[in-house]
């Protein structure tokens, strides 16, 4: 029986000040999808009110147009992201913010994963270093050079 090969699946929670979830971020995400770098499985936009109330924004509603290209991800719900995941993500947000919670597959890695599997390779450890940590470390190295 053939097994479908997939790339690693990641999730990303991007928090923005309440009025700053712009089309620029969504356009960059859509570019990655169109180029086949990633495949979006789930995308949920969460609004944390100033009073701490939580609301999921329905990307299919006409007023979602204010979110620009994010509205084009309406219906991106695979089932990988559950209600508990959304609750946990909401708990990480600050009042007065809006966030995009994205679950995506790194499709660029599929040929690599397939080749490794065909050779009997198995992942025994994996980690992700957040981009901000890398940028901070590089800045610190530059400052000492």
UniProtKB/TrEMBL annotation:
The domain of life for this entry's organism is Bacteria
Do you know which InterPro entries this protein is assigned to?
Answer: DUF6325
One of its Pfam families is DUF6325
Its recorded name reads DUF6325 family protein
